[in-house]
Design brief:
Elements lengths: L2 E4 L9 H17 L2 E6 L9 H14 L5 E4 L4 H13 L3 E4 L3 H13 L15 H9 L5 E4 L5 E6 L3 E6 L7 E3 L8 H10 L4 E5 L3 H13 L6 E5 L2 E2 L15 H6 L4 H10 L12 H7 L10 E2 L2 H13 L3 H10 L5 H7 L8 H5 L1 H4 L11 H10 L9 H13 L3 H13 L7 H16 L2
Parallel strand pairs: 1-2, 2-3, 9-10, 11-12
Antiparallel strand pairs: 4-5, 5-8, 6-7
Helix pairs in contact: 1-9, 1-10, 3-6, 6-7, 9-11, 16-17
The chain binds glutamic acid.
């Protein structure tokens, strides 16, 4: 069975860029009948909060993703400690005592000498006494993983064969001086422990993958299959930032967008599939393969979101809309079918429905007064149906010689007070004769 995980750090609410891996993992799990784990990467105690973690759950649920399991790294420290001890015993994790300033100086010196600023592994040659001396000074060690320094190769399901040369990287710090874990080790330990088969995440993690494959191997775990997707950027080509709260999923929800529209934008942008309505997340999952994700940029276009949201609403059945219509006191299939055509966001219907219920401020141009008076006189008797509009305007055309815009627009402006809006043919029937007489001057 396939097992995937989406692993947000709860240091803010999620944005569109985070929704991309959240959903791509979901699609993969659905396509393969696999398991989806939501993993809170909350080892950074200073920046992670339970409130953000709860918010992420709410956002994910709103998008339509239902995880099979939720784990919090903050509750799994014992596992990481065990892995830590094994790596230390295997000589792959070693204590370092340099302060930030000392490391800065080392890097500056390397740059002056024209060398890459890679950690020089000085701590590897410290003796027992050296360490005891540092600790007596009150220095606590941070711990680095000793890289193999050989090229790590893997077949990426999106990017194809990849090589990460860990020889050009500093041995990564896995444990901070205060004993807390950085992201790298807990992620690997959890992936092994939870038997994750596929890691689908942003391409900013490709070099981490090189390091993590080495750690997995050092721990005797099975290396999962990796897929690194392009990152979503905003319309200006900038990455979305959690801390700025720009275009968070919660913002889109509050602005009244359909979750499906947001999900489609978050995942189909920057793929070979066109941005278009889908019936459900499962329908996208059936169609979108990882290989369709492009290697180039994925730039989010907010105007495309509006268009897509509108198209989803225009195709929405009455049954689907009903719960929300009921809560707004707007039941009636004919009303929905008429008004949905003009919606960009669902909530627009509250304003649009006033075209039926009033009050409407008719707009009447002086030069149309006579024409509208005639229109009023020629308004057919009830009962009305979809043919009434044709009969009425046909009679008006014969009587006045007006046609096209000159014929329809004064009627629209008088009946609705606006230049655009729902189809008049159907609106007329729903309005009824009494309301039309009231609105015509
Ligand atoms: N917490 C990491 C992130 O948000 C997870 C990366 C991963 O999927 O391994 O970038």
């Amino acid at each position: 069975m396939t097992v995937v995980r989406w692993a947000p750090s709860p240091t803010g609410r999620i944005h569109l860029g985070n929704a991309r891996p959240a959903l791509l993992n979901w699609f993969f799990a659905r396509r393969t009948g696999g398991r989806y784990i939501l993993r809170m990467d909350d080892t950074d105690l200073a920046r992670s909060t339970r409130e953000f973690a709860d918010g992420i759950e709410v956002d994910l649920d709103w998008l339509g993703v239902k995880p099979d399991l939720l784990v919090r790294q903050s509750e799994r420290t014992a596992l990481y400690d065990t892995a830590r001890d094994r790596l230390i015993a295997a000589g792959r994790l070693y204590p370092c005592y340099e302060t930030e300033e000392e490391l800065d100086r080392k890097r500056a010196r390397a740059r002056l000498l024209g060398k890459p600023p890679i950690y020089d592994r000085a701590a590897l040659s410290l003796s027992e006494e050296d360490r005891a001396k540092y600790e007596a000074e009150g220095r606590q060690p941070h711990w680095r993983f000793k890289l193999d320094g050989r090229p790590v190769q893997f077949d990426d399901l999106i990017k194809g064969p990849q090589t990460v040369n860990t020889a050009s990287m500093s041995d990564p710090v896995l444990i901070r001086a205060d004993g807390s874990y950085l992201y790298t080790l807990p992620s690997v330990v959890d992936d092994i422990d939870l038997a994750v088969t596929h890691v689908i995440r942003g391409e900013d993690h490709v070099s981490n993958t090189g390091t993590q494959i080495e750690i997995i191997e050092a721990l005797g775990g099975t290396v999962p299959t990796f897929a690194h997707h392009n990152l979503l950027t905003d319309a200006e080509g900038q990455g979305f930032s959690k801390r700025l709260g720009s275009q968070s999923i919660a913002d889109f929800r509050d602005q009244g967008y359909e979750p499906l529209a947001v999900a489609i934008m978050a995942t189909l942008t920057g793929t070979s599939l066109p941005i278009e309505p889908f019936e459900s997340l499962d329908a996208i999952a059936e169609k979108l393969e990882l290989s369709m994700i492009s290697h180039g940029a994925a730039r989010f276009d907010p105007t495309e979101l509006n268009g897509l949201n509108a198209r989803l609403l225009h195709a929405m059945s009455y049954e689907e809309a009903l719960p929300r219509l009921t809560s707004m006191g707007l039941e009636g299939e004919a009303i929905w079918l008429l008004l949905r055509e003009n919606l960009v966001r669902f909530a627009d219907i509250a304003e649009l429905s006033k075209l039926l219920t009033g009050p409407v401020e008719p707009v009447v141009a002086e030069e149309d007064r006579e024409f509208l008076a005639l229109a009023k006189a020629l308004l057919p008797p009830e009962p009305w149906d979809e043919n009434t509009w044709g009969q009425w305007t046909g009679a008006l055309k014969t009587a006045t010689g007006r046609k096209g815009r000159a014929l329809f627009m004064p009627l629209r402006l008088a009946l609705t007070g606006r230049q655009d809006g729902p189809e008049l043919k159907s609106l007329l029937v729903l309005l009824g004769r009494r309301a039309c007489l009231d609105r015509l001057p």
